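Project standup — Tuesday

K.O.: blocked on the structure for the chain from last sprint. Re-posting the sequence here as requested.
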Amino acid sequence: MSEFAEVLEALRRVRGINPFFALDVGRPDQTWLPGSALLEGPALKTTIDAIATRYRAEEPRVAASLFFLSYTARLLSPLTAANIPIDVRPENLWWHHDPANGLSVRIDEPRLGPPAAEALEPVVEAIQRVTPVARGLLWGNAMSNIAGALKMVVRAQMLTAEEAELRGARLMSAPPFEQAGEFIPFPGEVTFRRRSCCLYYRVAAGGKCGDCPLVK
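H.V.: unblocked you, prediction finished:
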């Protein structure tokens, strides 16, 4: 099977789990921005500011966290389920933010690429250039999305809970995920507790997530 066909088949196989696993391919219309706009120019800050307005987040770091939480959910959910290194570097991405409907992301070409952490690192650095937010918090958001994806994969009966936790543990054996949290044994279910907080509780009408370390 060619690389092109391998990636398309992997994405097709997982897209039905739920909408976060549906990663589309190909150049969209002119309302979308290339991934390079995440790394240079005003688009990233403008988007974070729009998120702050939508959620009435008074601290810029809260809006930055929500952006990366949404960004990584749309990329890491299908990658985690597919279990192959699909190229999600900014140069192979298109993205669009709508104030009412939130963030959408798609890849340009169905091809293999570096590990997800390497692909996400330039975006982490770009966020930190425009907003003071901790790296550990951002990588905690990414790992939280990986754990959430593994939970959905188990519920879709594509993996057992033990297989899913093993996949997650392998990811957390190396930077930048090694301090992100821990999997908690629970029969037939993937249960994860992160070590950092995404700050969602600091927005108007927000709350604490199920894997939040502040939940007692």
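K.O.: great, moving the ticket to review. The radius of gyration is 17 Å. Helices lie at 3-14, 43-55, 60-82, 116-130, 135-155, 161-171.
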